[in-house]
């Protein structure tokens, strides 16, 4: 094919093109790249003073855009196309079921933007079946599959000048392997050289305009389509097929169509021969449970009673195509004869069988042989066999080579564990499936060992096939498998491309697991591939096993990992020495692997795994205007995986530790090379493991200040220590900030939090639209990196970090679980703002570690005073967890699952700490006793001195005193609050204007009756059940909040007996449930009613000027996971999103300096307030009457005229004797009866 005909105007004439028009119906719309802001909630927090949130998270955001989510980054092998929101967070706009390894914007020659080409090893993109490649419209969000290739695409190059997308990888497509072209909007086309005999890892346009391919190939596709020395190596199993026939004889012994299966002796007779009825055409058909591509048909003709088949045709099913064959005439010896609809069989009895080679092999799962002419009285056959060139081993043994074929080492498999056979459905063959049951299920004893029939030693590519999950509805449970191969006895291993396979693909796929030497089967050795489940997976994971394929390839065909495709000529030059690039590859030691190519200016940089013993460089070199040139210091001392040009620097990632000569320390897997000064630069001290990809990313290094940063990905566990920066633990993701010459994770700034993987990035610029950066990978991002506690502010609503340096600990054993919620405790669980005299502190409690201001380690409880952070003195066990805090005067009451020795005495559940002295109080309270002791709630009765401290939780005794569930500490001793209470207390709140009743929630018994709520009357020292609680609250209460001033109305939440979350309000007379509106995975840990600055619509649940804050690990309808939500009585709105490592985070509670203020309640006021108000009203009325009388009198006098007062006065004392003084004042001291009302 001429180059001009491929890329010139008459491109539509190319026969190999796969037309695009059938794909139009497959276009799958998705969300476009549109950002919808969410109005900030109108919270009014001013009356609360300082406000904070506690929980288990390492990053947190306010919900500001509808496209935000709390979803953690995927670790099941699936990736997405991602874009950045205006606030710096990231949103997923299209999701694949596998890796997306490359993207590029395809702008055609006429300037029209066709879309973003995305490629990888996926089989679907946003639900549309799209194997390996698809086109994404960044404006409309439409996904257009590009069918025609199967396998994995590693690299793309969109070229406007040639109207072409060059595609490289490890795949098959059109009539090429590992490299093809997408031309305009017409479809796939073969490149003139039809690809390569090995994978392509990198494609770049060189400074001279030519296209450079890099990979692990040794020849072009046109020169490497060679067959193995022993063709037709594998027998296709017909014995397990469903055999049917038509036109069959009725003669006993000759009427069974299965007579000719596994009959290779050619012997005729009853039981060995299948015959047609006399003078009747007929057919013989085999339907298998697997697909195959046969290369050879072998037929034994019958000679029974002078009968025999004269002509036949072979039809492939399901395509219903008549196959073309070449054959040799056994009577004349003439070779290369051709037949299709009437293929001849000889009647010569000296010919045992005839072979017919498929001219154009195609895939099929069944075939039919139609006999149209015969010898003698009718046709028939004595035997039939099918062969194929590639070698397969199936997990289902009945699909492997038949035992009746008398093969010494037939393909087979060995299965251990409980596997079942799944039907092929839409897949190529039946397969095995198993389910891992149990949270700590052992993967030992669960395996499938594939044993191929390798007859010829050589270099092979080994692929493993995985059936899609949609056909068996297992997509939600598919897991990960480990692949272990044993391929040769003495030769060095080749290229194990994957040792771990994700089985989450929607549709069938294959992955290359090895390329290299494979030994033939012998008595002493047999190649094997073993599939086992990966350890540490969740309960209920589904694992499948189907087949492995061994494909023999040429060892060498003139190239060595590099090929220059000259765009200026219409013919293909096979003299590779004419190309500087080809020659540079051939100068490397055989077996070179080129992984990456970068071009900057007039220089091309080539990286990989190779050596050049002549010039003495390794793993990276450059090509300028002349030959290949070594980089300073001999290059790098181990494999280079990726190179990215950025300004004058090359950022390089791989598996190296230094230069070849060892002169530049600190180049651990990640380094930079300055192309101007030609010097190496350490980036920090690198990372602890291999770097696979490097991608640029804009990051808010400081709030709302985006910078271009460099992200790296790979299986490394930490950013290495350098200078004054300690090592930082990470999960294979690091962000290098060039402007700071440091890792983002090291900067003590309120910066954005990002974790996950990035594999590719591209910029899209369209006419009339803003430039758009698209990323491929899986990310979890939040506005701020913060650990377990943040301040919450209003006007405007925002979060602010505590900067305490908290590090969460692993959750403790089962005995350390919170007694009610059942949640493993980690992070900050509770907090407290306390001011008393000279004390002004913030206290954080939970299960964590932090660093004190003096550098010491803090365990589980931190006291923050200004900028000083302190912890508790030694004595408590480090696996303690604080779940509840309260304070009075200078004493802090801290409870939880707390054990240890303080002041030479044991403590259990509760400690007292003197905030003024900064030490444990003397003495400590007598410890609680019982199984799984936990203090979940503490409250100090308001306005009581000395302090009455009410402590609730899960315990039986306090010291030697029987005091189950709730106990009162007063005057240095424990006191039981009446009798009749039991179970576990989770939350408490005071009721009444004088706090004379305590409402208690949990998993309780009151008066031997199970209940979720109970009330303790302090004045009567009596317990009582809350009427209707047992019938209306469907499970134990874990969170409780007042809904009005005296808590006569309140909210409760918890888990119902069926495992779902509940939220119920008591309005003073009845219980009102919000219904089953929260996802089953919801766990509510805290409830708080907050004031609003702007009223919401009126409803019967939440007052117009208030809103309910719900904290925990929430699953909201039509949204997904959130750590906090606001409920206005009708709608749940996401409020705060948080993550913790690779998982969603959680918020345990809101705490504030002041308690929530409520408006007047609808209940009765205290009598004193009534009297005062009545007196004020009376005085006001008298005053108004006096004023009114004065005004009326003034008016009257003015109206009637003024009369002079008399100037002489009467005797004021003349009447004093008329009323004796004792009559006037004598009764003042005597008691009086109450007035009648």
From TrEMBL:
Protein name (database record): Cellular morphogenesis protein
PANTHER family referenced in this protein's UniProt entry, alphabetically: BUD SITE SELECTION PROTEIN RAX2
Pfam family, one: Rax2_2
Keywords in alphabetical order: Membrane, Transmembrane, Transmembrane helix
Residue ranges of every copy of the Rax2-like C-terminal domain listed in the record: 910-1158
Parts forming coiled coils: none
Domain annotation Rax2-like second: ranges: 231-381
């Amino acid at each position: 094919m001429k180059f001009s005909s491929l890329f010139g105007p008459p491109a539509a004439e190319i026969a190999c093109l796969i037309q695009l028009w059938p794909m139009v119906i497959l276009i799958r719309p998705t969300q476009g790249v549109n950002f919808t802001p969410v109005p900030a909630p109108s919270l009014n927090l001013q009356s609360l003073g300082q406000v904070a949130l506690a929980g288990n998270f390492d990053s947190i955001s306010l919900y500001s855009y509808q496209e935000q989510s709390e979803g953690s980054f995927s670790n099941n092998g699936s990736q997405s196309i991602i874009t950045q929101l205006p606030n710096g967070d990231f949103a997923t706009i299209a999701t694949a079921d596998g890796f997306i390894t490359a993207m590029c914007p395809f702008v055609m020659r006429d300037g029209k933007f066709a879309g973003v080409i995305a490629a990888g090893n996926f089989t679907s993109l946003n639900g549309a079946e799209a194997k390996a490649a698809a086109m994404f419209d960044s404006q409309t969000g439409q996904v257009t599959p590009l069918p025609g290739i199967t396998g994995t695409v590693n690299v793309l190059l969109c070229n406007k000048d040639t109207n072409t997308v060059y595609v490289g990888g490890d795949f098959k497509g059109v009539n090429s392997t590992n490299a093809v072209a997408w031309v305009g909007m017409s479809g796939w086309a073969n490149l003139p050289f039809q690809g390569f005999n090995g994978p392509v890892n990198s494609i770049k346009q060189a400074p001279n305009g030519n296209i450079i391919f890099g990979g692990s190939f040794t020849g072009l596709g046109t020169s490497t389509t060679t067959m193995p020395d022993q063709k037709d190596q594998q027998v296709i199993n017909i014995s397990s097929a469903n055999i049917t026939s038509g036109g069959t004889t009725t003669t006993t012994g000759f009427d069974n169509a299965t007579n000719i299966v596994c009959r290779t002796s050619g012997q005729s007779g009853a039981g060995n021969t299948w015959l047609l009825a006399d003078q009747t055409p007929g057919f013989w058909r085999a339907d298998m449970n697997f697909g195959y591509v046969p290369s050879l048909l072998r037929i034994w003709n019958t000679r029974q009673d002078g009968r025999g088949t004269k002509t036949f045709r072979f039809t492939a099913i399901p395509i219903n195509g008549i196959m073309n064959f070449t054959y040799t005439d056994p009577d004349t010896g003439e070779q290369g004869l051709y037949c299709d609809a009437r293929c001849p069989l000889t009647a010569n009895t000296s010919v045992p069988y005839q072979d017919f080679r498929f001219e154009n092999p195609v895939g099929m799962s069944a075939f039919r042989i139609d006999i149209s002419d015969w010898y003698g009285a009718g046709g028939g056959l004595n035997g039939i066999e099918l062969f194929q060139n590639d070698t397969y081993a199936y997990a289902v043994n009945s699909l492997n080579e038949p035992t009746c074929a008398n093969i010494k080492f037939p393909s087979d498999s060995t299965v251990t564990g409980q596997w079942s056979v799944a039907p092929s459905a839409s897949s190529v063959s039946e397969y095995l499936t198993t389910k891992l049951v149990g949270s700590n299920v052992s993967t030992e004893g669960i395996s499938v060992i594939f044993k191929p029939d390798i007859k010829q030693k050589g270099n092979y590519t080994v692929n493993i096939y995985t059936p899609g999950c949609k056909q068996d509805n297992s997509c939600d449970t598919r897991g990960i498998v480990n692949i272990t191969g044993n391929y040769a006895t003495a030769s060095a291993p080749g290229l194990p491309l994957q040792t771990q396979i994700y089985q989450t693909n929607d549709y069938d796929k294959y992955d290359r697991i090895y390329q290299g030497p494979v030994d033939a089967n012998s008595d002493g050795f047999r190649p094997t591939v073993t599939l086992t489940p990966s350890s540490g997976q969740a309960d209920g994971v589904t694992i499948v096993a189907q087949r492995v394929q061994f494909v023999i390839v040429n060892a060498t065909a003139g190239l060595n990992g590099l090929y220059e495709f000259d765009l200026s000529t219409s013919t293909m030059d096979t003299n590779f020495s004419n190309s500087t690039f080809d020659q540079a590859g051939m100068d490397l030691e055989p077996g070179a692997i080129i992984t990456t190519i970068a071009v900057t200016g007039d220089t091309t940089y080539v990286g990989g795994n190779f050596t050049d013993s002549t010039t003495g460089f390794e793993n990276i070199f450059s090509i300028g205007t002349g030959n290949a040139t070594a980089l300073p210091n001999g290059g790098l001392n181990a494999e280079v995986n990726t190179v990215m040009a950025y300004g004058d620097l090359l950022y390089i990632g791989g598996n190296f530790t230094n230069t070849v000569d060892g002169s530049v320390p600190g180049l651990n897997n990640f380094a930079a090379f300055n192309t101007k000064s030609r010097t190496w630069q350490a980036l920090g001290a690198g990372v602890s493991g291999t770097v696979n990809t490097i991608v640029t990313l804009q990051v808010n290094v400081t709030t709302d200040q985006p910078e271009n940063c460099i992200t790296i990905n790979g299986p490394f566990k930490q950013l290495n220590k350098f200078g004054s920066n300690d090592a930082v633990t990470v999960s294979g993701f690091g962000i290098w900030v060039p402007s700071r010459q440091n890792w983002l994770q090291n900067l003590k700034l309120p910066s954005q939090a990002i974790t996950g993987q990035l594999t590719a990035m591209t910029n899209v610029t369209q006419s009339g639209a803003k430039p758009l950066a698209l990323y491929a990978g899986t990310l979890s991002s939040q506005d701020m990196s913060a650990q377990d506690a943040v301040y919450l502010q209003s006007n405007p609503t925002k979060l602010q970090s505590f900067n305490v340096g908290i590090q969460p600990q692993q959750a403790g054993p089962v005995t350390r679980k919170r007694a009610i919620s059942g949640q493993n405790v980690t992070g900050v669980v509770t907090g407290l703002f306390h001011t008393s005299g000279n004390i002004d502190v913030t206290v954080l409690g939970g299960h964590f570690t932090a660093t004190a201001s003096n550098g010491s380690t803090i365990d589980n409880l931190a006291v923050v005073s200004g900028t000083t952070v302190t912890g508790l003195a030694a004595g408590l066990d480090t696996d303690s967890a604080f779940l509840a805090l309260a304070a009075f005067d200078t004493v802090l009451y801290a409870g939880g699952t707390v054990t240890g020795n303080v002041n030479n005495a044991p403590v259990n559940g509760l400690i007292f700490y003197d905030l003024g002295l900064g030490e444990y109080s003397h003495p400590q309270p007598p410890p609680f006793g019982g199984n799984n002791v936990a203090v979940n709630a503490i409250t100090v009765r308001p306005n009581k001195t000395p302090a009455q401290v009410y402590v609730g939780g899960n315990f039986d005794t306090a010291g030697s005193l029987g005091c189950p569930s709730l106990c009162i500490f007063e005057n240095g001793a424990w006191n039981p609050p009446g009798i009749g209470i039991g179970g576990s207390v989770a939350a408490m709140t005071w009721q009444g204007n004088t706090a004379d009743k305590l409402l208690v929630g949990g998993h309780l018994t009151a008066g031997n009756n199970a209940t979720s709520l109970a009330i303790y009357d302090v004045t009567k020292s009596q317990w009582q059940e809350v009427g209707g609680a047992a019938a209306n609250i469907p499970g134990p209460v874990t969170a409780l909040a007042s809904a009005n001033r005296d808590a006569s109305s309140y909210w409760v939440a918890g888990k119902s007996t069926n495992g779902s979350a509940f939220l119920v309000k008591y309005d003073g007379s009845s219980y009102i449930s919000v219904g089953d509106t929260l996802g089953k995975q919801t766990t509510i840990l805290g409830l708080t009613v907050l004031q609003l600055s702007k009223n919401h619509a009126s409803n019967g649940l939440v007052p117009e000027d208030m809103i309910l804050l719900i904290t925990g690990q929430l699953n909201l309808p039509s949204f997904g996971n959130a750590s906090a939500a606001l409920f206005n009585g009708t709608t749940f709105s996401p409020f705060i999103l948080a993550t913790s490592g690779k998982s969603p985070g959680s918020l345990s509670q809101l705490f504030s300096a002041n308690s929530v203020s409520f408006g007047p309640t609808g209940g009765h006021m205290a009598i004193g307030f009534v009297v005062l108000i009545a007196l004020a009203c009376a005085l006001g009325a008298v005053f108004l009457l006096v004023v009114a009388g004065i005004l009326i009198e003034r008016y009257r006098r003015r109206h009637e005229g003024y009369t002079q007062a008399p100037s002489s006065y009467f005797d004021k004392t003349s009447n004093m004797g008329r009323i004796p003084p004792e009559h006037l004042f004598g009764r003042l001291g005597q008691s009086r009866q109450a007035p009648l009302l």
